[in-house]
## 1
Amino acid sequence: MVATLVARSVTVSRGSQLVLDSVDVTLAPGHRIGLVGPNGVGKSTLLRALAGDVEIEAGSVELFPPTATIGLLPQEPECSPTETVHAYLRRRTGVSVAERELEATTVALAEGVSGAEEQYAAALERWLSLGAADFDVRVAEVCSDLGINEMHLAQVTGSLSGGEAAKCSLASLLLAQFDVYLLDEPTNNLDLDGLERMEHWIGGLDASVLLVSHDRTFLERTITDVIEID
């Protein structure tokens, strides 16, 4: 899906501290924008605000069309100590939520709930757009290519090393089919092979990307524009 994200005058505070002050961002299809600035100026907060994970005090964030999907990769992977790698990949790609929504609307449709047809159609479209239909097939292909075997997929994420966790984060990106990507330091802990794969993946995206990175060389190879906040 072709999607555009438009943020106008986004303002966020943390207690009495102003973190973001009237920030404007437009992410159009094919845009690959690097978000740069010193530590502590609110780069991660901006990504989370655009994804809807942080409440904004003023301004607006709009997605066109509203049914488009946003994928946020935080700097520190949000892993449960008891979550398996396979479950992590399903969650990070949005597949697990899409499947729950499809199952719920299927039940509502069978029960004749008012408006269920429209809700089911929307849930099915989201499920398909996120690549849920062939997810397990793609997991096998991507993970095999990255050296993640079936035993690793059953392993809990809490037991992963930094390098293994980075590889799983990379796998989640390669499997994802979002319309807008918000990436916070996506190259952390990646080896040279992982960096090359990340560069190739970003370069081949039709979707829009906003990414934070301190790796200037990586940014020069992947982005089309820069936004600097201070």
## 2
Amino acid sequence: MRFEKQKARLQKIKADIESKLLAAKKKDDIILQKARQKLETLEKHAPDKAALFKQHIKKIEAKLAAKASARESKAKSKIEKEERKLAELKEK
């Protein structure tokens, strides 16, 4: 009985993590999209500032990639932790 509850809990955690990762990815995509739109506007009206803003976008992309990587590794470790708990229950 306890094993089944733990198994259901693991599935719930996996689904929750997947939805959070997807939401974070969408949020990151929106941030990048807005930055690129601003870049297009700058290229039309202020080409000198556009070059600086391109560098800024690269920094934003790097920062978002680092955050995404950290989120994914944290999620992976949380899932692995729950899977170990489940395996321990199965052995008992």
## 3
Amino acid sequence: MPFLPKHFAAMFRSFPRSFWLLIAGMFVNRLGAFVLPFLAIYLREHEGFGTAEVARILMGWGLGCVVAGVVGGQLTDRWGRKATMVLSLCGGAAVLLALVHTHDALLFAALALVLGSVAELYRPAVAATISDLTAPHQRAQAFAYLTWAYNLGFAISPVIAGWCAKHVGFAWLFYGDAATMLLAAAVLALFLPETRPKLLSSGSQPAFRSLDALRDRRFQPLLLAAFAIGLVMIQFATSLGPLLRGDGIDLETFGRISAVNGLLIVLVQPWLVPRLEQWGRYRVIPLAALLFCGGFALHATADTAWMHVAVLASWTLGEVAIFPLCNAVVSELAPESARGRYQGLYWMAWACSNVVGPPVGLLLLAETGELGWALFLAALGFVAAFALLVMARRIRAEARTRPLA
């Protein structure tokens, strides 16, 4: 590859071809992630649903994500990574096409539950596949590239979605999202090999239940931290839109502001994550949680588009560290026979925040105003940071007491 700088060529050679195929499929899927960032606005402004109905619909989607975490982890370990991903993407596309023709709030909530249950099954499978394809010392960087691909797509998709919502119509957000899910499914089905370890494929894996992972004292604080951080992250797709609309920001500008998050991650993450790893992931993650949650709370102090961009840039730096480093920790803690289930439970913790976060965020914003909303998000940052410090202490304590091989 003489046309590429040497470090890019080395980057591609350091991971197998299957890894880059997976990254390509996830990029295609995220490139068309049009619906979720605009869902709260769509439900309020296009369908005319009230705050309680919007919260109920978003809660339905979040409950579905909880189901997807548990079921997706089980399917990943027992049925296979590839099959789980293809089922998830094709099923999610079908539900999106049904949602665009649904105008009853109760039916919309039921379909949102199905959407979360099916369309999010792929997440444990993707994480387990990356663990299968990479060595332990590569995983933080590998998950950084996954997040990079997600955000490269997300840097583009809100701009397209905002333009479509304003000039073509909200329905095209659903059609476009479904089309890219099907395209991603085709890429994975045709080109990605199954990576499930032979021990699992033969059916001879040691007995392991999801509850065994929940009893892992090193893993428990990480689940609490993921839940707390997730409560903040889901505000990006729920209460942040109405907050910015209250500041007089139109749909197209909201799309551009949202795209800055993905663009910054694309520019910064490949360079920053290896350096953070050198500093020590267990030192970095608690600080990143504080920066992310506290930075997000500062949206309450902004009242212009440029101020919101500056605030978004601050918490994006925390996000850059949190996701790849936490996923690498989960891969480190999980036995080979239970990678899907550990990743599924980790995603379930995030998904539980998707159930609680939308109604709490929207109702706090409506009832207590921006100050109450901001104080809640900042407090979650301290909860997450404390939990991550406890996790690091337990991991180090076990490492000291583990007998040498």
